[in-house]
């Protein structure tokens, strides 16, 4: 009897620890690296789903925008066809976590390279340089640029560099934060908020989506170096993505991608290419 009972308990404990080991295995510990996934012909890439011209999930389920084109080009250089890509939404406040948890292989989502973010993830690039700007309703005459936002409420996304900049350097401006820029737009549309602030190309995309409703005002007032975010310490992947970015600059694909996305949607001139930082 006694032996039987001990045995039963022992088997039970074994089952529990087996289940725990299996869960741990599936949960992250044994996830393949991005380059291993690429070797299997598959990549999961984080993009924005709600930024017209830059990164958007269309009504028919397709994806388009400048970041999407960059993602596809880089994937191609890693040996992955467009059919092998799974695009995953990477909202601003969740990007580092998505990379750290291995839920994406890398992120191409208007992602500014900053020292604080570099403590958690690494960046290839930059592949584009944007600048913080302001979007207001088309009939707004009060907000004409960053000099005129004192005493106003401006909206940005939680954790974004533009939100941090307002908080730090514009003490007389009130900051409203949401999880997406589309929510900020609703506030501007209803008149509750004076402006949305984020990178110029994102705002240009929103303005062009609703002609006559909004306008982008003033000069860009920060420098946002867009990088491709990837797992910290994966230097091999970073090197290969940097090679791909440079190839995209060199063979004319970068120019074409820009013109066909942001350029076309928002009549935006194609800027010069940045220099990749191989840190
Ligand atoms: N580039 C800025 C950032 O990475 C703003 C754009 C965004 O929220 O994605 O925070």
Automatic annotation (TrEMBL):
<dbReference type="InterPro" id="IPR051455">
    <property type="entry name" value="Bact_solute-bind_prot3"/>
</dbReference>
<comment type="similarity">
    <text>Belongs to the bacterial solute-binding protein 3 family.</text>
</comment>
<dbReference type="Pfam" id="PF00497">
    <property type="entry name" value="SBP_bac_3"/>
</dbReference>
<keyword id="KW-0813">Transport</keyword>
<dbReference type="GO" id="GO:0006865">
    <property type="term" value="P:amino acid transport"/>
</dbReference>
<dbReference type="InterPro" id="IPR001638">
    <property type="entry name" value="Solute-binding_3/MltF_N"/>
</dbReference>
<keyword id="KW-0732">Signal</keyword>
<protein>
    <submittedName>
        <fullName>Amino acid ABC transporter substrate-binding protein (PAAT family)</fullName>
    </submittedName>
</protein>
<feature type="signal peptide">
    <location>
        <begin position="1"/>
        <end position="24"/>
    </location>
</feature>
<dbReference type="GO" id="GO:0005576">
    <property type="term" value="C:extracellular region"/>
</dbReference>
<feature type="domain" description="Solute-binding protein family 3/N-terminal">
    <location>
        <begin position="42"/>
        <end position="265"/>
    </location>
</feature>
<dbReference type="GO" id="GO:0030288">
    <property type="term" value="C:outer membrane-bounded periplasmic space"/>
</dbReference>
